[in-house]
Specification:
Largest sheet: 3 strands, mixed
Radius of gyration: 24 Å
Strand order of the largest sheet: 1-4-3
Shape: extended
Helix content: 10-25%
Number of helices: 4
Number of domains: 2
Strand content: 25-35%
Number of strands: 7
C-alpha cells in the first residue's frame, strides 16, 4: 500500500489524543472482523476516514482490494495451511477465552504522522474544545498498546441445552453451521448452570444495550427439560 502511495496505520483508537498513545482495537464477535475470527478466518477491516476526500477514499479502497487479492493469490497455500491448523486447534482445545483485557504494562512504539493537538474556545459553548492544527504537522513515535490478556475463560461443555422458547437463538446458531438436535421426550438431566450474580449497565451504544462486568456462579443440579428443547 505504501508503494501505491497509500500509507496505512492501525485504527486510531486514541486514549485522549494520539500523542499519548493509541490502543489496538478489541475486535469482539459483534464486529465483522471479530465475527470472522470465530470461523478461524483471516479478516481485515479497512476504514477510510470520513474526513478524507471521497475520491481518495474510493481510490485507496480500490488499491487495498488489489493488494489483498494479489496477496491471497501469492500466499494461498500458507493461508489455507494456517486456517486448517487453527480449525484443528479449535476442535481439540478444552478451554475457550471469551473476553480480554488490555495489558497497559506492555507498550510498543509506533511511528505516527499527525497534527499538533490544541484547544480553543468553542463558538457554541465558550468552553475549550480540541482541534488539530494543520499548520503544525508532526512525525514521531507514540505509544502503541496492542497486547491483550484473557479476562474470561470457560471449559468447553459437552453441549448446551436451549429451551425451545428461544427460537431466534436457535435460528442464528443454525445460520452459523452449529449442529443442533432436539430432545425426543421430556427429561430430567443433571446439568451445570450459570447463575448471574451481578452486572453493570451501560448506556445504549449504536442501537445495542450492553451489560458489562457480568459475574456468574456455576451450580450443578437436576433440571427438567422438555421434548423439543
Amino acid at each position: 500500500m505504501k508503494a501505491k502511495q497509500w500509507e496505512m496505520i492501525p485504527y486510531v483508537y486514541a486514549r485522549d489524543i494520539p500523542d499519548n498513545g493509541i490502543a489496538a482495537f478489541l475486535d469482539l464477535p459483534r464486529y465483522s472482523s471479530g465475527y470472522a475470527a470465530l470461523f478461524n478466518t483471516l479478516s481485515f477491516m479497512p476504514e477510510t476516514h470520513m474526513l478524507k476526500p471521497f475520491k481518495d477514499r474510493v481510490k485507496s479502497t480500490y488499491a487495498f482490494i488489489d493488494c489483498m487479492i494479489r496477496l491471497m493469490h501469492e500466499d494461498h497455500e500458507r493461508i489455507r495451511e494456517a486456517r486448517n491448523k487453527a480449525i484443528e486447534n479449535t476442535r481439540h482445545k478444552k478451554t475457550f477465552n471469551l473476553n480480554w483485557q488490555m495489558q497497559t504494562d506492555k507498550v510498543e512504539q509506533l511511528l505516527f504522522k499527525g497534527y499538533t493537538a490544541k484547544y480553543k474556545a468553542s463558538e457554541v459553548s465558550g468552553k475549550d474544545r480540541l482541534y488539530y492544527d494543520h499548520s503544525e504537522p508532526f512525525e514521531k513515535n507514540i505509544p502503541y498498546y496492542r497486547h491483550y490478556a484473557p479476562s474470561l475463560s470457560i471449559d468447553k461443555p459437552i453441549a448446551y441445552i436451549i429451551p425451545q422458547a428461544y427460537q431466534e437463538v436457535v435460528e442464528r446458531l443454525r445460520w452459523n453451521g452449529v449442529q443442533i438436535q432436539q430432545l425426543q421426550d421430556d427429561q430430567e438431566l443433571k446439568v451445570e448452570l450459570y447463575v448471574i450474580e451481578n452486572y453493570k449497565d451501560r448506556a445504549a451504544y449504536e442501537g445495542h444495550y450492553l451489560h458489562t462486568n457480568v459475574e456468574v456462579r456455576k451450580i450443578r443440579r437436576k433440571q427438567k427439560y422438555f421434548k423439543g428443547d
